[in-house]
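ugh ok fine here u go
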Amino acid sequence: MKKLTLGLCLAAVFSSTAMAQVCKPDSITPTHPEGQYLNNGNGTITDVVNGLMWSTCTIGQTAAGGTCTGNPVKYDSWQQALNAANENKSYAGYDDWRLPNIKELGDLVERSCVSPAINLTYFPSTPSAVYWSNTMDVHDVNPDIPIKGLLVDFTDGSEFLTDVNKHRLIRMVRPL
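structure:
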C-alpha cells in the first residue's frame, strides 16, 4: 500500500502542468556542454556540436524578448505534424526547416532537468509535453495496425512509440 500511495503522489506531482522545472546539475552531470548552443537572436538556436539549427519556440509560439509567447499548436495525427512541418519550411531566412528525426529530437533532452527536460535558457517556455519526430516504427508493417511514430516526452526526456493519432507538439530543425 505504501508503494501505491508513493507512486500516486509522484504521478500527481509529475503530471502537474504548472510544475516548475527542476534541475540537479550538482548530482547529475548536465547533458550539454557549455557553449553547445548559440542564440542567433532571430528565433533560432545553433547546436554547434550536432550541426543543426533549431527553432527557439514550439510551433504556434513566437520568439519575443528572450521568451516564447502564444500557445503551442497540438497536432492530432502524425500526418498533420508532417504537413505542418512542410507548411513551416520557411523561417528566419531559411527554407529547409523540417520535423526532426528521433535522434535529433532526443539530443535536445537535458538529462539533469525535468518538467521540462530541456535547457530553458535556449528553449524558453517549452511545455512539459510530448513532441513528434519524423521517425516511424520500421517494424510496423502490418496494414491492419495503425502506424506508430517515435516521440520524445520533454516532461522527463523519455522516448517511446505510440499510435500516431494523439495530440502532440512539434519543434522545427534544419541542417547548418
